[in-house]
Amino acid sequence: MFASACQPFSMVKRSCPFNDDMNPQMKIHVRDKEVAKGVMSDQHMKLVYDKTKHLLFLGAKKTQAAPASNTFLNGGEAKEDVVSSNSTTFKQMQLTSQGQLSSPEGAQTPFKVKEAPCSKCTAWNPLDMCCCSFCDTPLCSSCTQICTKCQDLFCSGCSFDVYDASEGFICRNCC
């Protein structure tokens, strides 16, 4: 009994009488992001919508004011990206009743000229180069295939052999 009296007596800690979430004493910082997503979400989204619409109208005005051209500057000299600069040959493609794309009658897109070697045979002759009308792959005249329906130039990956009386090629747009 005397031995137990000599040992130090350990007291139990008393529990905190307050809750763990003392809201009046906690440091709370509310950012603009939380306010914009919560209480002020309607006003914030209205501001975002108005600003986006304003920027879109400014961009539309700039594109209407700037003249469209088929040339780009490369090293100080202008080079044409298209063989024909006649813009009347470009026509809107239309959907048929079967859901296929079709070109209007008389519409022929000019063939684009590429300044890169042929992707099939790696030959390069600047006077002989063109590109596929579907995938824009640079091709020489010996690697191009002409579609029997639309008469455009295509590579072997974008055209298919036709094994009937015509014995020609048909492109992905016309099949």
Order of helices and strands: HHHEEEEEEEEEE
How confident is the prediction overall: mean pLDDT? Answer: 72
Strand order of the largest sheet: 1-2
Low-pLDDT ranges:
69-88, 109-113
Query: Given the structure, what is the number of helices?
Result: 3
Helix content: 10-25%
Strand content: 15-25%
Largest sheet: 2 strands, antiparallel
Distance between the termini: 105 Å
Structural class: alpha+beta
Overall number of strands? 10
Q: Name the overall outline.
A: elongated
Rg, Cα atoms, Å = 36 Å
Give the quaternary arrangement of the chains. Answer: single chain
Primary descriptors:
single chain, Apoptosis regulatory protein Siva-like, CD27 receptor binding, two-stranded antiparallel sheet, 175 residues, elongated, Siva, 21% helix, 10 strands, alpha+beta, 16% strand, two-stranded antiparallel ribbon
Could you explain how this protein is built, in words?
The structure is a single chain. The chain has 175 residues and is of the alpha+beta class. Among the domains are: 32-63, no CATH class; 117-174, no CATH class. The protein has three helices and ten strands. The strands form five sheets. Strands 1-2 form a two-stranded antiparallel sheet. A two-stranded antiparallel sheet has the order 3-4. Strands 5-6 form a two-stranded antiparallel sheet. β3 (94-95) and β4 form a beta hairpin. The longest helix has 25 residues, at 41-65.
